[in-house]
Structures are given as C-alpha cells and as structure tokens.
Design a protein that fits this description.
The complex is a heterodimer of chains A (about 325) and B (about 80). With about 325 residues, chain A is α+β, with helices and mostly antiparallel strands. Chain A has 10 helices and 13 strands. Chain B starts with a helix and ends with a helix. Classes of the chains: A alpha+beta (about 325), B mainly alpha (about 80).
C-alpha cells in the first residue's frame, strides 16, 4: 500500500499585509479579513521562480523524510502560475535535484493539482518507487499587475509545498482517494495567456461549497469511515469562510480543519501541501506525523473544476 | 403561505436582512446575498421545498432574484 513519507514547504520572506494592499485597492484592511480570513500573505522576490520555490520545498521534504534525491523514481509538479507555456517547472526542478533521466511531469491544473498529484503518485508508486509531488505557485506575478482587482488580488500569495510518497513500508498509508472533474464551469475560474485572472466568485463558492463535502463524504462512505473519526482535514486553503462551511456541512467543528490561510492567503495548489507540512511537524507529541490510528483527510477544489479527497491512516 | 412568501422568508433568514426585495430586484446587487449566503440559501430552498438541486443547475444567475428563484423552484416541483 502506498505511504506518505514526509512533507516540506517553502514560503518567501516578504510579508504583504492587508494594510499594505488596502492602500492600493481603495478598501479597508478589515474588509479583506472579513471576506477571506486572510491577514497577510507572502510575495516572492523578483529572482524567485516557481521552480526555485518548488526546489526549496522539495529539499526540505527529502531532508525530513531522510531520502536522497537519487532514490526518486518520478517527480510530479503542480503549478498554475508557471512562467512559460513549456517546458513546465518539473524538468527544471528534477535537473536542480541532479536526477536527470527520472520522469518529471507537470500538472498545470491550479488549486487541486497537489491533491491530484498525491493521488496519482499513490497509484504509480508500486511501479516507480519514491515519487516526489511538488506544488509551487507565484500568484503575485498574476494578481499584482495594475490595476489591482479588489475581488482577486488580496486573496492570493506565493509559496511551495512538497510530499514524498513511496511504496515501501512507512507508517502513514494512503487508504483511498476520489478525483472528479467537470468542465461545465471552466469559464468561471480561468487564467488566459497575457490576461488577468478571471473569477466568478459566486459560482466558485457555490460549487465548492457543495463539491468538497460531497467528495469527502463519497470517500469516507466508500471506506466505511465517519467524518467524526478523522483526526484532521488538510484542505486547500482557499478561503476561511469556505473551510468553515465545509466543516459545517460535515457536521464537524471548524477546528478539525487545519488552517494557515490567515498567514499565507491562497497559494493555490501549494496551499494544501504547505498546510500539511506545518501540521505534520507539530502533530505528534514527540515525532512528526500523525499518531498510530489517526485518520488524515486531504481535500481540494479548483479551476476546471477539479476536486477530490484523499484518505490516509497512521498504522 | 405561497411559494414566493416561502422564498422571501428564506432570503431574509440567510441574508439577515428583514427588508423585502422586489420580485425582479437583483439579490446580489442589492446586498441581500453575498457569495457565502448563496450556498446557504440553496440549501434552505432544498429543505423547504423538498427538492434536490443538481450541481449542474447551480448557476448564480438562476438565483439572481425572487422571481427567478420561484421560476426555477416551480420547474423542479
């Protein structure tokens, strides 16, 4: 059974507060917090790229897992904010890890990309061995160009996360996953070439409010587990109000959903792995990762729309 | 209570606004519904009218006004 061997993350050092953004958006800093739960986010430096941030997260993940990059059999890289059409950042990250020759695959599907990457890696680990899933986003390059859009710019930040999945024995097994896509609303959240990010917020929130709990419910029902039995939900950090609604739909206290959106904003596909990397380090009393018997549920939703959930159990 | 009154009761509940929107008035532009009150309203409509609204019908424009909501709900009953 595929297993999670560790997580890593990278956040740029520059902190951009709501006060700083509000001055450019003709709005109140408190309004940004009210509608999103975000107080600040990180912006990458000009010289930092999707690949360089992804490499930093990958390095931390491998170090924490105690695995050498030479022992990777595949690398999957999710990003919706890569700087060019092709090649994507996957081959650059693999080259920087000095593993040329190892298949490096890009997943340009934005917010749900890291969840899809984890699920794909779980299915492929028996063939390829250790698979590194990286998600890296430089959203500031997309949302910062003037004029700033008040409904979009404050929501996003930059960062990267990584997850190592292997087929060898490890204490956190991936039990199952569900993945879904529906192109009927593809125009409601899109980023065209040389154009600003376009988002029909009402449609996105409406669909996400239904599809995320439905995906989690489908996964748990298929594995005869109750939502109340899950130790922690590690979800794409899109909006605090959305996470609270998902918790309510599952009849759970919102505290069961780990949240760092107040500090980092929405880092698109990177957010779920950044949240996982943070939670993992502080989960147990002595060692990183969940305690024996704990269930961990990952979930994401994003442009496409793509959504799903993945269940892991510490054994 | 007729269907329009039942819908108005739900809109006032989820919007926490006791004023009465006009039948054709945009519930979004007039501030009755924001992005997060909309899914709450859809859930309340399903419970009140005993219907299941498929995700494919979850287009905010269908829920733009009291008249549009009534038209949609009655098409599902």
């Amino acid at each position: 059974m595929p297993a999670i061997r560790g997580f890593g993350a990278y956040l740029p050092s520059r902190i951009v507060t709501n006060v700083e953004l509000a001055a450019h958006l003709d709005c109140d800093a408190g309004w940004i917090l009210d509608v999103s739960g975000i107080e600040e986010r990180r912006y990458a430096a000009a010289e930092e790229s999707v690949a360089s941030m992804g490499l930093a997260a990958a390095g931390q993940c491998l170090e924490r897992a105690g695995v050498n990059a030479r022992d990777l059999g595949m690398i999957l890289v999710s990003s919706g904010s890569a700087e060019r059409r092709f090649p994507g950042p996957a081959s650059s990250i693999a080259h920087a890890l000095e593993i040329d020759g190892v298949p490096a695959i890009d997943l340009p599907i934005a917010s749900a990309g890291s969840l899809f990457g984890m699920a794909l890696a779980a299915g492929l680990a028996a063939i390829h061995g250790n698979i590194l899933v990286v998600a890296s986003e430089k959203m500031s390059a997309i949302v910062s160009p003037q004029p700033l859009e008040r409904g979009v710019a404050p929501l996003f930040g930059d960062g990267a996360g990584a997850c190592l999945i292997g087929s060898e024995d490890a204490p956190v097994k991936i039990v199952d996953s569900v993945l879904h896509s529906d192109g009927a609303f593809a125009e409601d959240l899109r980023l065209k070439f040389d154009a600003p990010l376009e988002m029909n917020g009402r449609s996105v929130i409406l669909q996400a409010s239904r599809k995320i709990p439905a995906g989690i419910g489908e996964l748990l029902a298929r594995n005869a587990r109750a939502a109340s039995a899950v130790k922690v939900f590690l979800m794409h950090q899109a909006n605090q109000n959305l996470m609270d609604r998902v918790a309510r739909a599952l009849e759970l206290d919102a505290s069961r959903f780990y949240s760092n959106i107040r500090r980092y904003g929405n880092t698109s596909s990177a957010s779920m792995l950044i949240a996982a990397a943070e939670w993992w380090q502080h989960a147990g009393p002595n060692t990183p990762g969940p305690n024996k018997g704990d269930l961990v549920c990952f979930a994401a939703f994003g442009a496409g729309f793509h959504w799903g959930a993945l269940l892991a159990e510490a054994v | 209570m007729d269907n329009q009154e039942r819908i108005l009761t739900i809109v006032r509940k989820v919007s926490k606004n006791n004023q009465l929107p006009g039948p054709e008035e945009s519930l979004f532009d007039s501030g009755f519904l924001d992005s997060f009150a909309l899914p709450d309203m859809v859930g309340e409509l399903e419970r009140e009218f005993g219907i299941k609204i498929p995700d494919s019908d979850l287009n905010p424009r269908k829920f733009e006004s009291i008249a549009r909501i009534q038209s949609y709900i009655e098409s599902r009953m």
